[in-house]
Give the backbone structure.
Amino acid sequence: MARIIFHLDMDAYFASIEQQADPKLRGKPIGVTGRPTEQSIVVAFSREAKRFDVWTGMPVWEARKVCRSLIFVPGHPERYVETTKRFLGILKRYTSKIEVFSTDEVFMDLTAEVERYGDPITLARRIKARFREELGPCITSTIGIASSKTFAKLIAKRHKPDGIGILFDHEMLLLLKTTPVSEVCGIGPRIEKHLHRMGVRNLADLGEMPIDLLKREFGVYGLFLKGIGLGIDSSPVVPYSEVPAPKSVGHSRSLPPHLRTYSLALHVLRDLCDKVGRRMRKLGYVGRTVHCGFRLGPTGPHFGRQTTLDTPTDDDERIYRACLDILSAIPQRPKIVNNVSVSVTQLVPYRESPISLFDNDQRKEKLNRAVDHIRDQYGDKSIRVGTSLLYQAIPRHVSGFVLDQMTGEDVRGGNSGEDADPI
Amino acid sequence: MTRIVNEPIDALVVYRRGAPHPLLHAFRWRDERYKVSETFFVHRERNGENTYLCYSVGSGRGRYELRLDTGLGRWMLEAVDAARC
C-alpha cells in the first residue's frame, strides 16, 4: 500500500462510556438522552439496543415503543470529552498525524510508523489492547485500514463492532464493483438520488462516468466522486494541531416550550450573542458579518438574514444590536419561535484589526476582557448579562438542561461550528 | 437506585508516577471504611479555575460516586448505588 491510513471509530461511544462507568448497565439495552422525557431524543444506543429497530436521534417515546426494556440514561458530556482526550493521548504515542473527524472518530497516517510494529494488523491489535487496558473493557473501537481515508472509513464501517478490517490494493476492484454509492462517506441521499438518475449504482459505475459529466453535474465535487469511483482518494490526514482557521463562530438553540414566545426568544438570543462574543475573544478573532435566524413554529418557515458592520467586532452587545436590526425586518412579529441562531463570519485575527480611537469602544473592550477573566476563574455562570435572569435558562425537567451545563473544552480546539441543538 | 449523598469523606489514595489521576484505595463514610475493589471510570470536570476529579468506584456490592476538589484536596461522596449488578 502506498499509504497506510487507519480510521478508528469508537463503538456505540456515549452508551459504552455510560456502561463503563456503571456496571449495572452492562449487557443491557440503553439509550443516552438529555433527560428521559418524552420530548427528548436518544443520541446513542448501546450495542444491545441496536439489535432493535432503533436509530440515532429517535424520540424517546418512539424508542420506548420499539424496545420496551430500553433503559434511558442521562448523558454526561464531561465523561465523553475526557474519554476523547484520553484515547487521543494513547494514539499520540503511535503517531502525530492524527486527524480528529468527530468526537469518536479519527484518521491516522501510520505509513512511516507501521514497520516498527511489524504489520498494520499487529499495530491495530496493539492499539485496541491499550484502549482496553486504559479506558476499560466496555469502551471498544473498530479500526479500518486502507491506503486512503475514504476507504479506511468504509472498511471500518463493515467491521463494526470491536473489529479490525484491512483493504489490500488487489481487493480494490472487487470492492468498487460491489459497493453501493450510498455506503461512501460524503455521498448522502441527495447525491445518491442524483447518481441513480444518471444510472450509477455502485462505485465501479461511478469510475466509468466521464469526468466532464460529473463536473457538470456536481461541480468540483465531481472530481472527488470520479476519484472514489477509481479507488483513489489522495486527501491527506490533517493533524488536529494544524486545523485551519475558523470561518465562522456561531451558536443556535432549540427552545423548550416555555421559552417560545418572541420576547423570551430575544433573551435567549442575547445569551447566544454573549456566548459567540466570548468564544471569538477566546479564539482571538473579530468578525464583520452577523447572521441571525429564527425558526417560526415547529415546522414553520425559517427567517434568516445577515448584515455587515462597518468595523469588525467581538463585542456581544454589538452582535446583539445587529441581530435586532435584522429581526426588525420580519414583516410580522412571530407568535411562536422554535429555534434561534446567531453566527459571525468574515473573521480576521484580533491583532490584525484596527484599534478603535473612541473612548467608549476601548472601555467596552476592557469590560469584556474583565468579564472573560472572571468567567475563566469562577466559571461561565459566575457573571451574566442581566436579561438572562429574566427567564429561567432551561428547567431541570427539560432534556436540554444537561448539555446546557456542559463546561468541557472543545477537543478540537473549539475553533469552528455551531452548537448542537440541546438533546 | 442511585441515592444522592453529597457528604464530605476521608479518602486513602496513592499517587502513582505516570498515572493520569490519584488511585483511590479506600474511603471512610459515616465511620465506616469502604475498600475500593474496582475503579470503573474517572473523569475531570471544570468550573472556572476549579478542577474536580469524579470517580465511579465499586466496593462490596455497591457503586459509589466520589468527587475530589483538586484545589482544596477535599473529597465528597456524591451518590451511592446500593446494588450495582
